[in-house]
Structure formats: structure tokens, C-alpha cells
Amino acid sequence: MNAPIRYAQSGDVSIAYQVTGEGPFDLVLSPGFVTHLEADWDHPDHARFLERLGSFARLIRFDKRGTGLSGRHGGIADLEARMDDVRTVMDAAGSERAAIFGYYDGGPMAMLFAATYPERVRALVLFATYATAAWSPDYPWGWIRPDSIETMLEDIISQWGTGGTIYRFLPDADPAMAAWWGARERAGGSPGAIRHLIASIAITDVRDALGSIQAPTLVVSRHLSPMCEASHSQYLAEHIAGAKLLELKTPSPFPWVNHDEYLDDVEEFFTGSRSVPASDRVLATILFTDLVASTETAHALGDAAWAILLERHNAVVRRQLSHFAGEEIDTAGDGFLAVFDGPARAIRCAVAIREALRPLGLQIRAGIHTGEVERPRGGTPRGIAVHLGARIAALGSPGDVLVSGTTRDLVAGSGLKFLDRGEFELKGIDERRRIYAVSG
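RESULT FIELD:
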């Protein structure tokens, strides 16, 4: 994410913040535990979570004092200081009034802020959070007890920076997320900062402020969430006037894990409507290239000379893909798979690759097909259109650029010329397909 990191001065501490998204209202994310404004973009699930929030709001994020890119301070940061930080960041970002999304230990601050500054809070979402984390007879689901907090703290500190603490929150975290979490821990705060943060969590109690919250409130609960069971959310929903309770199935207090499970509901709560989701199915033109007689050439040249020639081949293909706005999807050995948003560009790119390889004594065959593919955000295109492109390429002779009838019809009027090669049965494809060769 290229949005700049800026700083707001809150007393003697500089608070780092970042603004992304261009929605019609401001949304402040009140984070839990440690964060790092830059490292938060490094895991794809977390990045998609932030992008989704920024799709319907102007998203304002900040690192809590003592963590991430914000200034360090001595001692425990109380909620009053953290409220000052939020107010300072909102002022610096030009936000007079905002919705607030608070999760984990960012939730109590969000609640107290909403109760204290009702004119600045338009709505409140409380995700897997609590009014207090401390156990008491009248709050028996609190998980922090005086006789166990030191043991818990030492266990967290002993694993800090390794990623091991993620399993407290997400027992089935995969190795990639655990590695990212460890790097985020190291960037987000020192062991000393975590001691202060956990000490702050242990003494936080906003139960008396719940009755003063005026903003429309959505409480999001994740059943069996480690360290934050559903009873916390039920308590909040019962004690905040008019609050709605949304109960989810995924057992994780991380809001970016399986965020598709609930963010449509959050958007509807904030805006009154849901976005029409962008389909994972798009029309695309698939290009396959295959280097002719590569095995024979490699045997004749020897491994070292062939490796050099193959690198030159790859450089030529990538240069032409860049020139014609094609996206390289995969390369396996001596072939390329690329996708284009326009069929004429795909054809011209294949022809340019063919001509640019001639001086190297290399020939390709290429297959091109335009059709609907399934492509999740950031994923590899898949579907029958991809298989058709591969099958068409396999029909070619050295130097051929072959296209399907669909692609040929879509470029009518482009000036490109074709020779009818007839109809073919393609492996795995039900009906026969007419194939054309690009002439000239």
C-alpha cells in the first residue's frame, strides 16, 4: 500500500497513522494487541481485510502509543491517553466524525471514546472484545486472574518475536501466518512494551461507561474465541442501549481471519446497504507459448549454453508481454502462460514474440483463446478457457500462432488476418472447435 505514513503529536508522543480508501464516511480502526502500519499489509488476508474496509469507507488506522511506528513512552498507557491519541489522529486526518471499529483490546478504548465524545462517533462496531478482561465473581468469564497473570505474561514474553503467541488466538494458524505474526511482533513492540500493554489490559474496565454510549452499535461475537469467549459480546449487547449482536462461527478474535463471514453485515450496518460483490468470473484472453524442439536444442548445445539461450528466450517473452500489457501467470520449463484483457493485444504479442525469437534461432507455437475464467483476487485463472488455450497451442506447427473461433470473431475490424485451419476435436472438450492461424 503506497499511502503515506504520517504522524500526529499527542502530548509528547508521536502517533503514526495512515489513511486509505475513498468511501463516503470516515472509519477509525481501533486495533488490538500490537500492530505495524506497514507490516499489516504483508499478509494477504490482512491486506484484503483492510482493502475491504477501504472499499466502503475512508479508513483511518494508527499504531497505539508504544507499538508499531508510533513513539515509545514509559509506563502503562491508560485509556484516557489512548483516547487523546485517537482524537489527535482524527484531527490530523481531517475527520470531525467517524465510525469506529474496535477489536480485542482496542474495543474498550472505542467504547469509552464513544461514551465520552458522542458528537464524534457516528456508529460503533465491537469485534471479539470485552468490557473488562479481569475475572470477578460478577464477571466470571474474565480470563485474567491475579494469581495467573504473571505466568501468562512470562509465557508470552518467552515466545515473543517467534510467532508462537499466535496459537493463543488462532490454534490452527498456518506456518505462513505464524511467520508473518512473528515478524509483526518484532516490528510492533518490544517485550517491555508488551508487559505494559498486558498490564493495561489487566486493569481496564469500562462496564460503567456502557450505559452512556449513544452511537448505534453492532457487537460481533465469535463463539469459542480463545481469550475472548462469547459471553463478553453478549454482556456488551445487553448493556449498550439498542446494540445489535451478530454471532459468528469462526473461532478467532482476529477480524481479518475469514472476514468474508461478516464484513457484508458490517458494511450494511454502517451504510444501510451491501456492495454488489465483484464476481470471481471474468472474460480474459489466454495465451500459451511453447518453444519448439527444445529438448533437441538443449542436447545439441549442452546444459550451460542451453541455460543461457533459455534465459534470453525468457527475457524476450517477458519484454513483449510488458509491451502488450500481458500478465505473466506461469512459466514451466520453456513455455509461458499469460493473460490479457484484450484479444487483439494477445495476438499481436504472440506474433511479436515469434518474430523477436527468430534471430536467436528459436521457434515457438502459440495458442490463444478468449473465454470466461474463474479468478479469485490475486489467484491464478482457471476454467475451461485455460484448458482450451493449452489444447490449441498443442495443435500448432513451428511458427504457428493459432486462435479459437471465439477470439477471431472478437477482433473483427482490427486488421488482423487469419487462415481457416478447420475444425478439431480437443482433448477434454465436448464439442469440436474451429481453429484459425494468424497470417502474416
